[in-house]
Amino acid sequence: MRHLAIAPILLLTSALAGCASFSSDSGMGVVSDVTEKAIGKDVAFVRAKDEATTVDAAVKRLLARNLTADAAVQVALLNNKGLQAAYNELALAETDLVADSLPPNPTFSVSRITGNGASEVERQVVGDMLALATLPARSEIARERFRQAQLKAALATLRLAAEVRRAHVAAVAANETVALLTDAKATAEPTAQLAKKLGETGGMNKLDQAREQVFYAEITADFASARQNAASSRERLARLLGLWDGDLGFRLPSKLPLPPKRPLEQPSIEVAAVGHRVDLQIARMEIVALAKALDLTEATRFVTLLDVAGIDRRTRDPEGPPFRERGFDVQFQIPIFDGGEVRVRQAAETYRQAMNRLTEKAINVRSEARDAYRVYRSTYDIASHYQREVLPLRQIITEEMQLRFSSMQVDVFALLTEARQRLGSLRAAIDAKRDFWLAQSDLQTAINGGGPAAAPSTPSAIASTAPAAGDH
Fold first, then answer.
1. In the 8-state DSSP scheme, what is residue 441?
2. How far apart are CA 75 and CA 243, in angstroms?
3. Sheet (strand 118-128) strand order
4. Helix or strand or coil: residue 3?
5. What is the DSSP string of 92-109?
C-alpha cells in the first residue's frame, strides 16, 4: 500500500498545510470593530454560561437606571436573541470557510474475487486531482464569502441599533403626549361639568354648552388613544431589547431632550456615506468574489472531472505462483458536447449583474444621504422654531389671559379657548422633537448603514460555476 497513489498523497499533504482553521471569536472581531467605530457600542456573542452571566449582569445594571436611547441600544446589542441568531449565522459561515478550504478526502476501495481455486485482491486509492488543483482558488473565494458574512453580521447589528433608537424615541414621545393629555383632561373635566350645570340653570346656551362638552369628550378619546399608543410603543421597545417580560421594570425618561443648540454640519455627507456604508462594502466584496469565481470557471471550463487512482492487485493461481500488479488509472471527461460555455456565460452575466447592482446601490446611497441630511436640517429648524418662538409666545399669551381673567376682563370660557390652542401647540412641539430625533437616527443610518433590510438579491453563481470536490 506504501506505493499506492504517491502523487495524490503528496498533493494532499501539501494542500493540508494551507487549510483554514476555526478562529477563537468566530469572526466577531470585525463586527466589534465596525460597531465601535459606527455607534460606539459593545457587542457580545453569547455561547457559554459564564458569558451569559456577564451579559445578564450588564443588562441589569443598564435597566436599573432611566433608560436613555444610548442605554437602550446597548441593552439590545447584548440581549436581543435575533441578533444572537445573526451571529450564529456568522459562525456557520466560518464552518463553510473551513470546509471549502479542506482538500477532498481520498477514496479507498478493496475488492476480492475467487473461483476455481484462484483469487484476486485489488486495492485502490482514488484522489480528485481537479479539486486539489483548484483548492487555492476555491479557498480564496470562501474567504471573500466569510468577509462578507462578517460585514452582514455587522450590518444586522447596526440595523437593530437603528430600530431600537427609533423605538425609544417613539416610546418617550408617546409617554410625553400621555402626560400632556392627562393634564388637559384634568382641566377640561370640571369645565365640562360647569357647562352642564349652567346649561341646566339656563346660564349657558346649548351651543356654548356643547362646545365645552365636546372638547372634554375629544380630550378623553385622545387620551385613550395616546395611552394605547404608549403601551404599544413600550412593548415594541421591550421586544427589541429582548426582555422576556414587557412589564419588567425599565424606566423611560419623562420627556425627549431638546434639540442641540447647533445642528450637525455635513458638507461632504455623500462622501462619508459612500466611504462608510457597510452594505456598500458588502456589495464591493461580492464583486471581488464573483470576479474570482469567473476566473476559476474560465480556467476549468473544459475539465470538470480528473480522478487519479493508484492500483495494487494480487492474484493467486493454483496452476502457478502468485503474482502482484501495480499501476494507475486516470479518468477525465471529454468536452465533446459541453465545452463549459454555459457555465462561463452564467458566471459572466452574474458578475455584470453584480456590477450594475453595485452602481445602483452607490447612486442610491448618495441620494439617501442627501435626503437624510435635508430632512435632518428641516426637522431641526422646525423643532427649534417651536422651542424658540411658538412655545414662549404661547406662554406669554397664557400669562396675559390669566391676568385678564383675574381682573375679570375675560371670562373662563375665553381662558379655556386659549388653553385648547396652547394644547395644540404643545402637542405639535412634542411631535417636532420626535421627528427631529428620528431624523437624526436616520441620518446616522444613512452614513453607516443599517436601514430596513432590502429584498434578497439573486443567489450568486459561484456554487454552480466553480468546481467543488467530487463535482463530476
1. H
2. 9
3. 107-115, 118-128, 306-317, 320-332
4. coil
5. HHHHHHHHHTSPPPPEEE
d(CA 85, CA 150): 13
Q: Is the pLDDT of residue 210 over 80?
A: no
pLDDT digits (tens, 9 = 90+) for 147-185: 999 999 999 999 999 999 999 999 999 999 999 999 888
Residue pair 413/203 in contact (Cβ under 8 Å)? The answer is: no
Alpha-carbon gap, residue 128 to 136, rounded angstroms: 14
Question: What pTM was estimated for this model as a whole?
Answer: 0.81
Q: Which parts of 211-358 are beta strand (E)? A: 306-317, 320-332
Helical residues (DSSP H) of 6-134, grouped into ranges: 6-16, 28-39, 49-63, 69-79, 81-100, 129-133
Q: Is the dihedral of CA 349, 350, 354, 360 positive or negative?
A: positive
Task: Share the mean pLDDT of the chain.
Answer: 83
Between helices 28-39 and 412-448, what is the axis angle to 10°?
Answer: 140
Distance, CA of 22 to CA of 201 (rounded, Å)? 87
